[in-house]
Please model this.
Amino acid sequence: MNKSVTVIVLAGGKGKRLGQAKATLKLGKRTIIEDVVDEMAGLASEVIVVTSNSQNDLPHGLKAQVFTDIHPGKSALGGVHTGLVKSSNRYNLVVACDMPFLNLDLLKHMISLASGVDIVTIKVGQNVEPLHAVYSKGCIDHIENMFEKEDLQVSHLLDAVKVRYINEDELDAYDPHHLSFFNINNKTDLARAKKIKEATAK
Model:
């Protein structure tokens, strides 16, 4: 367990395309967020869940501190900001609550690269995974400056800070199928996740 890193789980998604809040998604008997929080509790001593003001249906008994967005309506960037402000540590692993296949070895590798940079994230081709990344508290001022300009584009934050990108070859050493940052946005994704879960459980 790493005592110098906080895990921030973003749980503010309303899941409009799913017809339910993402925090209440189930692949088995439990919600995905319960599985994510339990797994992350073994990785870091502090786990924070950030939710929106409109979402009060988190499962009871989560092994995490729960905070609502400091700046509501600021999309995922608002959730990242709230987590960074509430965190006790300089370095913070950010994941979404609808990522059922997180890879602990990959996450540990990302944490090991955090010193001296503001963000560690994955880049495959032109696609970046900003909700599967390590952020330092040094990002807080940059995000607040963006809020003042009504700018919620995470790509603009990446342009403004020092970033360590994990490329596809480096990623493949830990997660050749790129499932670790697979997230559930719609019913097709949910069906796929259930199939993967069933296959890996056999």
